[in-house]
Write a sequence for this structure.
């Protein structure tokens, strides 16, 4: 088990800055997800941890040792690749045994270790097969087996589930959570799928444009997003963000005013442009003063996602239970749950301006 | 139904005509090599020899330096192949995996040498060989063959190398292999079809090459089969047809055997070159 620390890490490819001043401290035994859209620098971060890329500046340390110049094989890490990267010319058993072979483990000990890993991952009947004779899920388990066979300090997983179909993915997700609990090892998991990050990780590092946006628990990332990017990236459908003007305790949007509870927000907010954020589950249809028109109703069976249009054309989403009858074209009055309102500074990464206790979990029933 | 059958017949007819046209000289070569001298120039010619004799083969092996030429050719083609495959594999690895300035230009320039007719390169090469004291040696031929086989080998291996996912190498590095270790354990086995087809191309090229051998080498002891057999059996006054045909059969044999065993690899090599090269 090991702490993993990135201190002021910067990575540049030519003139392109892939990562800027990244500071992350991962505790021993923690399951951390690096989450972000493609090109946000999450894979680069992982590859630097693995030693496949080198930081332009800054330090990476594993278990208290700076590993900037340490070769990948000597870092005591294991990595699972998105493509699984199984060696096609080797059998499953040879694939799993390869890291041990490279460390000079004797053939007898290798056999025992492979057997143990195969038992853990239910691979025993497949040991003599070649990777191309396996299904996607089986290949995935072989890749995991190869990673855990030599008991590394840190596991690095690069979108390991993205090539699986939806059903298998949710199954493997549960398997991975179980595996983490059983092994208790530090795991760092790169994904662009927020569902994976939210369900599996102890903490999530949300990244965007080569910068760390927020590094916190799934609950905090969802309920107290650090800025507008995190607010819009986390949650499906994502948080509504309405651009408008703050004037005292009133937020002006689409020709109407929404009264705010000023005690929930930073005290020094001046008059001017801000963005009001509210998650779709806290938009109440038929309970409020803001006039809107229903543009689209999507019924998923257990809930409805309703697209609403304000008088100035701004669109927002609401989530209601499936039983409610709503018609496209219908004019309604909407309102926002006052404890669920976030206020952000303008700009794509405008920071959240709530005091930090506010807008935490509100029971669904109280909507 | 009827139309498609007719089509089939026509296609087959055309194909077999072509095959016969192409294969006929080969066939005639084999037939001639086993005909006795007396039957050789008979008119009309006999399609199948009345008596089959291997005396030409025997004479070739016992009374002429054929075996010396054969050995020279084997040494020449084998060494060239080893050189080209070794250099080509490492070069292709560099072109695909490492990022440095002028990488693409380099790859293009390598191919550019193919635009020059080989006759143009012969004189400078010859002068160079003389200058470094290698003229009239097998080494000079090995070097010359390497220079003109390498560009194509590099190009072919490059397209195979591009087909090997980088993740495989990264995985090997993480698993504890050194860079050379990953190359040996993971990349080379993946590259095997490419290496085999490159080796075949090179071997055939070097085995059949005539012009360079004619210019760079002129003594019997180092001449390969192509030039050796020609100068031995074709003189201004006389062509020893039956010996020549026997020699030709024996020259072709190694290639045919190798081809038969590795032809599936060779066609995959053509495919790779066609799609990506």
């Amino acid at each position: 088990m090991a702490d993993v620390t990135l201190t002021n890490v910067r990575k540049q490819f030519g003139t392109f800055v892939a990562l800027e001043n990244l500071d992350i401290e991962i505790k021993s035994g923690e399951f951390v997800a690096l989450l972000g859209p493609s090109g946000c620098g999450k894979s680069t971060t992982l590859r630097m941890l693995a030693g496949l890329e080198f930081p332009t500046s800054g330090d990476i340390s594993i278990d208290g040792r700076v590993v900037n110049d340490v070769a990948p094989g000597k870092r005591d890490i294991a990595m699972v690749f998105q493509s699984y990267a199984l060696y096609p010319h080797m059998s499953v058993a040879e694939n799993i045994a390869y890291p041990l072979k490279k460390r000079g483990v004797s053939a007898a000990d290798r056999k025992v270790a492979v057997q143990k890993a195969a038992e853990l991952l239910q691979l025993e009947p497949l040991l003599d097969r070649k990777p191309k004779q396996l299904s996607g899920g089986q290949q995935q388990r072989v890749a995991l087996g190869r990673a855990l066979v030599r008991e590394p300090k840190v596991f690095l997983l690069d979108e390991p589930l993205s090539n699986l179909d939806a059903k298998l993915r949710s199954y493997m997700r549960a398997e991975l959570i179980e595996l983490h609990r059983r092994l208790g090892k530090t795991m760092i998991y790169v994904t662009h799928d927020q569902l994976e990050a939210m369900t599996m990780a102890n903490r999530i590092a949300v990244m965007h444009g080569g910068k760390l946006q927020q590094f916190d628990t799934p609950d905090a990332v969802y309920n107290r997003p650090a800025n507008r990017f995190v607010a819009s990236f986390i949650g499906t459908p994502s948080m509504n963000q309405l651009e408008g003007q703050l004037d005292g305790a009133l937020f002006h949007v689409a020709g109407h005013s929404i009264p705010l509870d000023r005690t929930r927000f930073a005290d020094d907010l001046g008059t001017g442009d801000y963005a009001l954020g509210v998650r779709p589950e806290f938009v109440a249809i038929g309970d409020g003063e803001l006039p809107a028109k229903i543009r689209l109703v999507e019924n998923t069976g257990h809930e409805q996602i309703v697209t609403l249009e304000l008088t100035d054309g701004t669109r927002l989403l609401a989530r209601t239970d499936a039983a409610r009858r709503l018609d496209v074209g219908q004019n309604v009055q909407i309102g926002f749950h006052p404890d669920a309102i976030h206020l952000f500074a303008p700009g794509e990464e405008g920071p959240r301006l709530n005091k930090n206790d506010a807008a935490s979990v509100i029971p669904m029933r109280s909507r | 139904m009827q139309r498609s059958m007719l089509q089939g017949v026509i296609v087959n007819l055309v194909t077999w005509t072509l095959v016969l046209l192409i294969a006929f000289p080969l066939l005639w070569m084999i037939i001639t090599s086993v005909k006795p001298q007396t039957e050789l120039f008979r008119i009309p010619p006999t399609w199948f020899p009345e008596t089959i004799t291997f005396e030409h083969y025997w004479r070739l092996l016992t009374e002429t330096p054929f075996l010396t030429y054969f050995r020279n050719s084997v040494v020449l083609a084998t060494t060239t192949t080893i050189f080209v495959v070794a250099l080509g594999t490492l070069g292709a690895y560099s072109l695909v995996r490492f990022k440095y300035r002028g990488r693409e230009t380099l790859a293009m320039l390598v191919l550019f040498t193919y635009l020059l007719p080989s006759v143009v390169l012969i004189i400078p090469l010859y002068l160079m060989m003389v200058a470094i004291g290698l003229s009239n040696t097998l080494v000079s031929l090995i070097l010359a063959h390497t220079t003109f086989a390498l560009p194509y080998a590099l190009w072919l291996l490059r397209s195979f190398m591009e087909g090997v996912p980088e993740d495989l190498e990264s995985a090997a590095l993480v698993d504890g292999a050194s860079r050379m270790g990953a190359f040996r354990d993971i990349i080379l086995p993946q590259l095997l079809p490419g290496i085999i087809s490159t080796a075949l191309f090179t071997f055939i090229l070097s085995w059949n090459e005539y012009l360079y051998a004619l210019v760079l080498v002129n003594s019997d002891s180092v001449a390969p089969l192509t030039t050796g057999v020609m100068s031995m059996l074709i003189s201004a006054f006389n062509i020893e047809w039956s010996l020549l045909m026997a020699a030709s059969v024996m020259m072709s044999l190694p290639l045919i055997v190798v081809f038969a065993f590795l032809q599936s690899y060779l066609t995959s090599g053509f495919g790779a070159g066609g799609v990506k090269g």
In short: Confidence is low (pLDDT under 50) at residues 271-277 of chain B.
